[in-house]
Amino acid sequence: MAELLKSNRRDFLKIAGTAAGGLFIGFYWSGCDSPKMQVLTDEEVLSQAHNFNSFLSISPSGDVVIYSPNPELGQNIKTSFPMVVAEELDADWEKVRVFQAHLDNDKFDRQVTGGSGAMPHSWERLRNAGATAKFLLVSAAAAQLDVDASELTTEKGQVIHSKSGKKIPYGDLVTDASKLDVPEEVPLKNYKDFKIIGTPVKNVDNKAMFTGQPIYGLDIYREGMVQAMIQRPPFGMKIKSVDDSEARKIADITDVVTFNNNVAVVGDSTWPLMKAKKLLKIDYEPDGNVESTEDHDRLFQDLMEKGKAQVMRQDGNVDQAFGNAAKVVTAEYQCPFLSHSPMEPMNFFAHVKGDKVELVGPTQTPDRARMETAQLLDIPTENISMELTRLGGGFGRRLRADFVVEAVELSKILDKPVKVTWSREDDMTGGAYRPAVRYKFQAALDDSGKMIGYKLRGVGINAGNTTRENNFPSGSVDNLLIESINHNSPITTNAWRAPITNFLAYAEQSFLDEVALEAGKDPVSFRLELMDRAKKDPVGEIHYDIDRMKGVVEMAAEKSNWGKDSNVMQGFSVYFSHRSYVAQVANIEMEDSQPVLKKITAVTDCGIVVNPTGANQQVRGGIVDGMGHAMFTNMTFANGLPNQKNFDTYRLIRMKEVPEIDVHFVDNGIDPTGLGEPALPPTGGAIANAIFKATGRRLRSQPFIEQKEFSDIKLEIKRA
Amino acid sequence: MANYSLKINGETFNVDVEEDTPLLWVLRDHLGLVGTKYSCGIAQCGACTVHLNGEATFSCTLPVSSVGSDEVTTIEGLSKEGDHPVQKAWNEVDVAQCGYCQAGQIMTASALLKKNPSPSMAEIEDAMNRNLCRCGTYHKIREAVALAAKTK
């Protein structure tokens, strides 16, 4: 059964036949009225060169080439995007080859990895690309066989006429298909008929990754290239003087350059650069606030008590509700700064050649990097090429362009192609952290245990809006006040996987656990009652789908056997972020009177699951990420510099510290809503709530292992 | 500067570098063997793991001067066609997310299985705990090592 979907008017389809008979389908997603039609030469199509950048091409041999436009950092988009195209095309996956497209605003849009948004944004476009090609191939087959197209089916790269038993491979049809008019709308499959989507498809880069091919930014070596490392200043400081005499004595160091408060050492290989950088003697002087963690703790206290807050949302009359309350529950939660710490440190290759620039490297936002480069050099963006490598992780750090622009600036100064490599210490001390935030929650309960008032006040350091004011429990409480205060600091911050919610979810879900207990209610029932209230009689705007949220709550309770086994201490958490819904239950069991974290059950509603193997890992990886940082990782500052500079003191979660993770998805046929981030936010809350259940200790700050409430708890973690 | 003759992946390479240069940077910057990854530089994460006479070794803190005539194997030399049992298991289980740490993980796993062809899950974890994976693919790494041990 097929559903008919109108083609998106912003998408312009270009079909090109070639003398050699190839079929090329390109989508132009620029959103302009007159798309730039590009006529490709046969050589371009057949060579399948990287500058070709088409979305999909089928050669007479039946080979299907699909270009994946979004930066790949482990979210598996380079495999799942082509799966969607291949699905509607009914391609033989064995004959599909995938290439990373480079930045091209004319041919692609939203070449960004962030906000868990790639699949939701491109889902319809990808399907249309595959379905349109299939429609043309079927039309060509109908003409060849002189039958009606309705008698034809497609399977694994062939058009099949079952009446006659004839099968025509796609490759034999592309020449004819390329001469046909492109239809304005094409039928799309019903999701129940998917054959590739919903099946486990292996990562297309497996072989390259597992044999050590040069696919990451740090692996880029170009003719005539020099290498550089940069000493950046502590936050709030500027250079007073530089003594580079010792650094210059290191063999292989060809230059030392001071620019923009940075000192770059330049040479031909990395090790001499590392040695020389350590020998730089740089005097800094204050250039604004030079902050330490004690300053932030004091700021948090002052601003929480007396700061002028921005009201983010106000429903009813909280003063009245709290005045009438039978019971008031108050708690404060705090999180530290965190480094993104992708395994591949920041790096970029830049070559400024007059008014042209060649850029190569790992970035989550190639367009932004190119724009900032254009601004820096005052040249048009068309003069800048941007080649995308695979990213050795990102977690939001590579949404910034600082590491690109500095390489550009250095290349211009040196008049040479340059690769700038950040050491781990540079990466950890060079900025753009998850902001530190403190929250104060207050709940007013009436004498029946109903939550009649709710207040949240968030204070953040370079955090922007510290709240998600229209998220749950907003809509379920009559009287509600949500406020945010931001302190501007020289310490740079940036989106960190599931921005704000990576900590807010833990704080909120822990607090709601506290409130449920004070109200004498089961934590799951308490949440469901609030959701029912929001469904029946919502207070103000609601920006989440209550049915989907309830769905994951109920399924998680069922899958985790919630409350059924008195030997298992369970903690519950549910959160909506980036369009998807995830509920989690952490199980702690007592063994020899010691708490053992054994399992986390996760139920996710992200709509249709494109690739189960990738999706399953996104959830597990998100949980491991959320758990590791909630439990172990801290970052403190002294005089504008992090105290933790490498993995010896900046503790990341390891294999022996992960429990069993049981992953479930809701099967509802809704178009995909995103999965790179949503599994992370609920994890800290689920674990903290289980720890409370098992030990009576409420953990209100992260990382858990550094809290005094945790000091005498020996939590073991075991895997099945 | 000094000249070193290194046995890597069954071949002999001559390099002229400072004696304190870590093997990692000799491989990457001087020999073009970039499959061995830099991540922490202080023997904490395992991304730079190679085999030294079959033993899993952090190449980021191993001075080239101490390699001598020891046999070095990198991810590029683990198998000719990328079909070492561990590589095959890694593909079968579809372990990687970003993939950056995976060469190091595979080198640690393959060294373990050479010494201990049938490790228990506890032994697998003991061996693999030294390798960090920021994406959190630990469950799949366990599964892949166990699968490689079974299929070997």
Automatic annotation (TrEMBL), chain A:
<protein>
    <submittedName>
        <fullName>Isoquinoline 1-oxidoreductase beta subunit</fullName>
    </submittedName>
</protein>
<dbReference type="InterPro" id="IPR012368">
    <property type="entry name" value="OxRdtase_Mopterin-bd_su_IorB"/>
</dbReference>
<dbReference type="InterPro" id="IPR052516">
    <property type="entry name" value="N-heterocyclic_Hydroxylase"/>
</dbReference>
<dbReference type="InterPro" id="IPR037165">
    <property type="entry name" value="AldOxase/xan_DH_Mopterin-bd_sf"/>
</dbReference>
<keyword id="KW-1133">Transmembrane helix</keyword>
<feature type="domain" description="Aldehyde oxidase/xanthine dehydrogenase a/b hammerhead">
    <location>
        <begin position="211"/>
        <end position="288"/>
    </location>
</feature>
<dbReference type="InterPro" id="IPR008274">
    <property type="entry name" value="AldOxase/xan_DH_MoCoBD1"/>
</dbReference>
<feature type="transmembrane region" description="Helical">
    <location>
        <begin position="12"/>
        <end position="31"/>
    </location>
</feature>
<dbReference type="GO" id="GO:0016491">
    <property type="term" value="F:oxidoreductase activity"/>
</dbReference>
<dbReference type="Pfam" id="PF02738">
    <property type="entry name" value="MoCoBD_1"/>
</dbReference>
<keyword id="KW-0472">Membrane</keyword>
<dbReference type="Pfam" id="PF20256">
    <property type="entry name" value="MoCoBD_2"/>
</dbReference>
<dbReference type="InterPro" id="IPR000674">
    <property type="entry name" value="Ald_Oxase/Xan_DH_a/b"/>
</dbReference>
<keyword id="KW-0812">Transmembrane</keyword>
<dbReference type="InterPro" id="IPR046867">
    <property type="entry name" value="AldOxase/xan_DH_MoCoBD2"/>
</dbReference>
Automatic annotation (TrEMBL), chain B:
<dbReference type="InterPro" id="IPR001041">
    <property type="entry name" value="2Fe-2S_ferredoxin-type"/>
</dbReference>
<dbReference type="Pfam" id="PF01799">
    <property type="entry name" value="Fer2_2"/>
</dbReference>
<keyword id="KW-0411">Iron-sulfur</keyword>
<keyword id="KW-0408">Iron</keyword>
<dbReference type="InterPro" id="IPR006058">
    <property type="entry name" value="2Fe2S_fd_BS"/>
</dbReference>
<dbReference type="GO" id="GO:0016491">
    <property type="term" value="F:oxidoreductase activity"/>
</dbReference>
<keyword id="KW-0479">Metal-binding</keyword>
<keyword id="KW-0560">Oxidoreductase</keyword>
<dbReference type="InterPro" id="IPR036884">
    <property type="entry name" value="2Fe-2S-bd_dom_sf"/>
</dbReference>
<feature type="domain" description="2Fe-2S ferredoxin-type">
    <location>
        <begin position="2"/>
        <end position="78"/>
    </location>
</feature>
<dbReference type="Pfam" id="PF00111">
    <property type="entry name" value="Fer2"/>
</dbReference>
<dbReference type="GO" id="GO:0046872">
    <property type="term" value="F:metal ion binding"/>
</dbReference>
<dbReference type="InterPro" id="IPR036010">
    <property type="entry name" value="2Fe-2S_ferredoxin-like_sf"/>
</dbReference>
<protein>
    <submittedName>
        <fullName>Isoquinoline 1-oxidoreductase alpha subunit</fullName>
    </submittedName>
</protein>
<dbReference type="InterPro" id="IPR002888">
    <property type="entry name" value="2Fe-2S-bd"/>
</dbReference>
<dbReference type="GO" id="GO:0051537">
    <property type="term" value="F:2 iron, 2 sulfur cluster binding"/>
</dbReference>
<dbReference type="InterPro" id="IPR051452">
    <property type="entry name" value="Diverse_Oxidoreductases"/>
</dbReference>
<dbReference type="InterPro" id="IPR012675">
    <property type="entry name" value="Beta-grasp_dom_sf"/>
</dbReference>
<keyword id="KW-0001">2Fe-2S</keyword>
